[in-house]
Write a sequence for this structure.
């Protein structure tokens, strides 16, 4: 009887020892797998083999590690994208600023001359003031653009009056239109609403109207603003009877700093339509354009109803 009890005790000891060895081996393997996976994540490897298995603890932990890894990759890609955008903006600023700065320096050198007549001095001061205005406008536009593109400023979409939106934009451009004898007609129901950020969308619409005023040179210049509603969008059509552009260039005019070859004598830096499109797209809307040389241009803004 004692031998039987001794044998059972020995078997239990051996089983316990085997269980301890197996548990230790499993923990070592489990730890090695996690360490290997963590080291690969920290090293930024792209081909990590995550052993995802809902039935094991290792598999569950590796599945969570995989999710963390994907979030880290997404954040890294967004940071790289934002850095590239910022680099492009800085490059654009430095390129665009060179011309007015060089002009200001040139006029300043002229003004330093003692033998310069009063009339010429006035002309150079006026020209210098024009370049300063251009520089100020450029910097303001670039600040808005950089904030919008890098996400520093987020648009706040709430239900707003479309009539108030159009009224503010028309008010902002009215003086320029009056100076060129351009008549602005508005057809907009007062009760119409849409979801948009009032401040940013006024700027977008103003840029489109300002573009229409700039490139309408006819004696009987006219801009028509017509607002209507579909199932999902409010549509704001801005139609002018200006010079128009070829259909092949419609995509180009929405690029940053693009200027029409024929527009060298017209003020502007080629950022208005680009900024307008970015503002509208960030609000889940879109812009479309139809134009033809000598037949004017129609730009349509689509703002979501909800």
């Amino acid at each position: 009887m004692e031998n039987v009890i001794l044998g059972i005790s020995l078997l239990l000891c051996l089983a316990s020892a085997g269980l301890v060895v197996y548990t230790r081996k499993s923990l070592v393997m489990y730890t090695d797998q996690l360490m290997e996976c963590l080291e690969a994540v920290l090293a930024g490897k792209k081909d990590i083999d995550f052993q995802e298995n809902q039935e094991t603890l290792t598999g569950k932990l590796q599945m969570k590690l995989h999710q963390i890894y994907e979030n880290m990759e997404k954040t890294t890609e967004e940071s790289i994208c934002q850095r590239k955008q910022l680099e492009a903006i800085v490059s654009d600023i430095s390129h665009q600023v060179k011309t007015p700065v060089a002009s200001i320096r040139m006029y300043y050198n002229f003004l330093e001359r003692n033998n310069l007549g009063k009339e010429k001095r006035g002309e150079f001061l006026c020209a210098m003031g024009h370049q300063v205005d251009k520089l100020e406008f450029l910097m303001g536009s670039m600040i808005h653009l950089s904030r919008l593109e890098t996400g520093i400023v987020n648009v706040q979409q709430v239900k707003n009056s479309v009539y108030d939106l159009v009224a503010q934009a028309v008010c902002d451009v009215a003086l320029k239109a009056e100076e060129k004898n351009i008549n602005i007609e508005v057809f907009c129901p007062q009760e119409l609403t849409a979801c948009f950020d009032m401040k940013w969308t006024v700027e977008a619409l103003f840029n489109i109207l300002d573009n229409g005023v700039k490139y309408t040179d006819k004696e009987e210049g006219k801009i028509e603003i017509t607002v209507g509603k579909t199932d999902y969008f409010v549509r704001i059509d801005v139609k002018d009877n200006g010079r128009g552009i070829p259909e092949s260039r419609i995509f180009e005019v929405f690029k940053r700093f693009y200027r029409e070859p024929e527009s060298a004598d017209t003020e502007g830096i080629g950022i208005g339509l680009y900024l307008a499109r970015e503002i509208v797209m960030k609000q889940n809307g879109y812009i479309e354009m139809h134009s033809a040389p000598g037949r004017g241009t129609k730009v349509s803004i689509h703002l979501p109803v909800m």
Observations:
- DSSP finds six helices and seven strands in the chain.
- The chain has a mean pLDDT of 78.
